[in-house]
């Protein structure tokens, strides 16, 4: 297969229950390493669509092609061993220890015991479940968040190139949810994997997705990057769907580089000596949200050398000759407002 061949191709997938078409003619293509989020209101067909990818549900029409092969040409059990699957209910085996739960798939695949043990230990450590404390515990001895991490470790254990996740953080309280989501996003393992994740949480979708497939009543409303859905909605449904959270989503989606169009200058700024000692430094790739968070921390630190809380945006990596830009709340919000206006009008 050519190196840029898609990992997953869903072609015209359709599924009915009785006379109700719960997924209607949905298509998408995913490249290696991409994360697609299936988003939409309750009952719009997200789970049905996800489960067609690993043949837990068979489509009435359409095909799923994984690594160039129609999934119907593979036995479902074989297919599923190559695809990690995480669900909200976690589904850990209650009479197996944490380590045994994580090792299930690699053992089924016949991996050597020493390799399975090493992999289990590594994953538990990476997911903040020190094996010396947790490996021999049983699922009922863990909190919901810890069980969720074990579920994720289990899905990653055999290092499958594809991971499907169905509301993986859905059962968690909001604070645990945010912190696990952050851990999840920063897991180096997942960067290389092709991920399809179901959620109805808009913020979660925007935080995790490379692209979002927004569904309503089984039909694709829009498939695109978070930026495209927010600033180029395909129809009124898409526009309405994000209305309540628009500002928060804009703050998370726009990056400093998007709003600082005229900000960098070739001359060294007067403040450059302050920049040299500053700790509040962001790259142009940071989101407006990240800049606001840093500004809010800066406002609580007493030793501000400048009269107002300030963060610095370093010059783009390819232009080290440019001076860093200092930003206060006022200058950041003015730049953000201008960018939103331009993007919305364009
Ligand atoms: N086994 C089934 N038999 C009959 N109808 C079903 C079955 N499974 C799902 N449905 C229906 O299909 C539609 C889509 O369900 P699905 O679970 O895919 O939606 P969803 O978007 O994942 O919803 P939620 O966000 O609430 O989990 C719903 O109307 C549901 O009632």
TrEMBL record:
<dbReference type="GO" id="GO:0015697">
    <property type="term" value="P:quaternary ammonium group transport"/>
</dbReference>
<comment type="similarity">
    <text>Belongs to the ABC transporter superfamily.</text>
</comment>
<dbReference type="GO" id="GO:0016887">
    <property type="term" value="F:ATP hydrolysis activity"/>
</dbReference>
<protein>
    <submittedName>
        <fullName>ATP-binding cassette domain-containing protein</fullName>
    </submittedName>
</protein>
<dbReference type="Pfam" id="PF00005">
    <property type="entry name" value="ABC_tran"/>
</dbReference>
<dbReference type="GO" id="GO:0005524">
    <property type="term" value="F:ATP binding"/>
</dbReference>
<dbReference type="InterPro" id="IPR003439">
    <property type="entry name" value="ABC_transporter-like_ATP-bd"/>
</dbReference>
<keyword id="KW-0813">Transport</keyword>
<keyword id="KW-0547">Nucleotide-binding</keyword>
<dbReference type="InterPro" id="IPR027417">
    <property type="entry name" value="P-loop_NTPase"/>
</dbReference>
<feature type="domain" description="ABC transporter">
    <location>
        <begin position="8"/>
        <end position="242"/>
    </location>
</feature>
<dbReference type="InterPro" id="IPR003593">
    <property type="entry name" value="AAA+_ATPase"/>
</dbReference>
<keyword id="KW-0067">ATP-binding</keyword>
<dbReference type="InterPro" id="IPR017871">
    <property type="entry name" value="ABC_transporter-like_CS"/>
</dbReference>
